[in-house]
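ARCHIVE CARD
CATEGORY: sequence design from structure
SOURCE FIELD: tokenized fold
FIELD CONTENT:
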């Protein structure tokens, strides 16, 4: 990684690649179970796809626009793109080395990923039958030399670029293209295998094996086929046509996305040179379009679904458990009406949140439910609860964010389903994503109105809640719920933004006052440090790139404020500076679960102020989204939050140091007790359960 010492901050995109390198480190870690190492290669690949679709595409757009677009960059887009290309090529080499190492480890476990050239007679018969029964009807060969306009290649697909020839050269060679139908069929097929072994073949190798059945009609008898893949600009342009609804603009954008400009072309480095030259020319690509040679296999994101059944050791991930306050109770609602409850996912069960919504759906005293939805599970229990609430006569309002990147299509479908059921669906404003995770339930009993609900750092998604680390505060606090109500009032009547959102007294909300509030809290710590009063800031985020907040943290470090940070992803801050009175402790944790929570704790002269938030410290979150941070008042919950953060800051197994060099060095245990924070957090929270509950194995 190149050092960015002359700059005041680390370039955001270079920092992101450093994060993805930490994912690659997990794939390289021999202490990680083999199936998980394979999964991390898939995550790395999927991350890189999205990086090119979004960030590289943005930089290319900036180059086309010119200088005016560079105002927020310390380096020009072309220099950043050059560095990206260098880093990606180095990471690809590391990726290939790790994959070859994993293949050797698979072999030791008698698991073999074989090609079409390694099939025995029984397997070849199986492959031919599978091709005829399942695959043939799902592929459409394209004789690309006879097509006037080159086909638009889907950037979520892989293609076999084929060269067809005749051994006696009696007919000219031809080029063809086949889309591998991995979205409709399994990418991995387990073959009949010798005793004690597991043989797996990839879908594209089944197609390679059966190329004669596809093309022999044309008289060819020699075939070669290599994988290619294109990555396209995924940005959805929202035009300013006032006569077009936001939904129509999103739908149009989704159609256009499929035809976005190519930003990366990846190919098997063994591909026929004449075929590669032909493809590059027909697709209108150049050396500036990130032409990246790779191995035989592409779309490694599918390896996140590598068949677990072939491994002797099964998944030992511990199951989530109910929060102690919700054990052996008849009603989650009844508990929340009496006290605040903080759920910590994925350790605590997401079922408690679903139960809260289900109870509200059938409670005759409940009048209405209002909720924001950013990313939902494929078969969402949240949606089921909302639909059930409407059927039980409740007024239900759901804010569906149509621009949740790569979830736009799914959210359009949820919008239609909810509206059909009678839910009032809001879709926000064209230029303001709704990213806050909030819910407000109105209940009237004995003519007395009460509000309860939750504020969360994570999505209302029961699937990702099993692997994403988040905090969710279930509460009936009047002040918190009053501000949640104000946010929904704004979302229903966005023209009244300033007076409604500025009236929030407890929650701090983007885009109106969260940035200002954070700056004030940091300033207060700086003032205390200069006065000789102990001052400290502990922050946990997904990403830190906002230059104004970074500059304020620099000021705090120079004043002697004790700064500790846990940041999973983008981290643009330079933590090493001789002018800092106290060294900044900044780490990133990449482990089995994805750290997703945002937490802020300010020492405040001993009267600590703590918040959970949906917002990262990025310009897009603080200035261009609806976000919410919520104070934590209950001493027991505050202590729990601090304990979890302290466990994470003590991690010396999965924590990497965030320094100026982007070296991703692991924290050195130095003969201390080994701390793997995700394991220790599970154990810490589990110990809070009743002793009558059996301990986890």
């Amino acid at each position: 990684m190149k050092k960015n010492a002359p700059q005041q901050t680390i370039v955001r995109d270079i920092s992101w690649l450093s994060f993805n390198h930490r994912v690659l480190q997990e794939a390289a870690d021999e202490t990680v179970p083999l199936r998980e190492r394979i999964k991390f290669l898939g995550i790395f690949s999927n991350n890189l796809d999205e990086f090119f679709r979004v960030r590289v595409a943005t930089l290319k757009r900036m180059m086309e626009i010119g200088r005016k677009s560079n105002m927020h960059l310390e380096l020009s887009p072309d220099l950043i793109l050059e560095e990206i290309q260098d880093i990606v090529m180095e990471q690809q080499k590391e990726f290939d080395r790790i994959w070859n190492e994993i293949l050797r480890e698979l072999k030791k476990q008698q698991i073999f990923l074989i090609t079409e050239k390694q099939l025995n007679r029984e397997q070849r018969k199986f492959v031919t039958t599978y091709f005829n029964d399942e695959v043939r009807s799902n592929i459409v060969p394209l004789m690309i030399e006879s097509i006037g306009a080159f086909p638009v290649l889907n950037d979520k697909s892989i293609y076999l670029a084929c060269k067809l020839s005749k051994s006696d050269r009696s007919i000219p060679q031809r080029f063809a293209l086949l889309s591998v139908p991995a979205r409709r069929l399994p990418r991995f097929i387990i073959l009949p295998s010798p005793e004690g072994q597991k043989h797996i073949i990839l879908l594209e190798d089944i197609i390679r094996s059966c190329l004669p059945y596809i093309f022999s009609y044309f008289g060819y008898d020699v075939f070669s086929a290599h994988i290619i893949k294109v990555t396209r600009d995924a940005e959805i342009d929202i035009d300013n046509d006032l006569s077009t609804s936001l939904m129509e603009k999103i739908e149009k954008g989704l159609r256009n996305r499929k035809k976005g400009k190519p930003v990366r072309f990846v190919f098997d480095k063994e591909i026929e040179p004449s075929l590669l030259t032909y493809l590059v020319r027909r697709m209108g690509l150049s050396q500036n379009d990130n032409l990246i040679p790779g191995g035989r296999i592409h779309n490694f994101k599918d390896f996140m679904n590598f068949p677990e059944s072939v491994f002797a050791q099964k998944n030992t991930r511990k199951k989530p458990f109910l929060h102690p306050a919700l054990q052996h109770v008849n009603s989650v609602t009844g508990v929340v009406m009496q006290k605040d409850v903080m759920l910590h996912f994925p350790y605590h069960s997401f079922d408690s949140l679903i139960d809260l919504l289900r109870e509200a759906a059938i409670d005759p005293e409940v009048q209405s439910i209002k909720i924001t939805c950013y990313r939902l599970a494929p078969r969402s229990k949240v949606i089921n609860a909302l639909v059930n609430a409407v059927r039980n006569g409740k007024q239900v309002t759901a804010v569906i964010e149509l621009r949740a990147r790569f979830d736009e299509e799914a959210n359009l479908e949820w919008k239609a389903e909810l509206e059909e059921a009678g839910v009032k669906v809001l879709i926000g404003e064209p230029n303001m994503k709704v990213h806050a995770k909030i819910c407000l339930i109105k209940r009237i009993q004995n003519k007395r109105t009460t509000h309860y609900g939750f504020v969360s750092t994570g999505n209302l998604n029961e699937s990702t809640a099993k692997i994403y680390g988040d905090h969710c505060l279930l509460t009936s606090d009047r002040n918190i719920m009053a501000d949640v109500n104000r946010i929904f009032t704004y979302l229903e009547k966005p023209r009244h933004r300033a007076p409604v959102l500025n009236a929030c007294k407890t929650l701090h909300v983007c885009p109106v006052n969260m940035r200002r509030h954070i700056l004030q809290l940091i300033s207060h710590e700086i003032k205390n440090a200069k006065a000789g009063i102990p001052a400290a800031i502990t922050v946990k985020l997904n990403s830190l790139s906002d230059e104004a907040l970074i500059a304020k943290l620099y000021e705090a470090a120079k004043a002697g404020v004790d700064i500790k940070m846990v940041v999973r992803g983008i981290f643009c801050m330079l933590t090493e500076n001789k002018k800092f009175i106290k060294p900044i402790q900044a780490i990133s944790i990449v482990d089995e679960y994805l750290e997703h929570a945002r937490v802020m704790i300010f020492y405040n002269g001993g009267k600590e102020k703590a918040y959970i938030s949906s917002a990262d410290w990025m310009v897009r979150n603080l200035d261009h989204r609806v976000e919410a941070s919520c104070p934590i008042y209950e001493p027991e919950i505050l202590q729990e939050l601090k304990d979890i953060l302290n466990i994470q800051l003590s991690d010396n197994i999965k924590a990497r140091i965030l320094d100026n060099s982007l070296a991703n060095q692991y924290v050195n245990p130095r003969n201390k007790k080994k701390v793997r924070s995700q394991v220790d957090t599970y154990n810490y929270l589990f110990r809070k359960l009743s002793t009558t509950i059996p301990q986890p194995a």
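CARD ANNOTATION: The two ends are 42 Å apart (CA to CA). The mean pLDDT is 90.
SHELF: design records, drawer C
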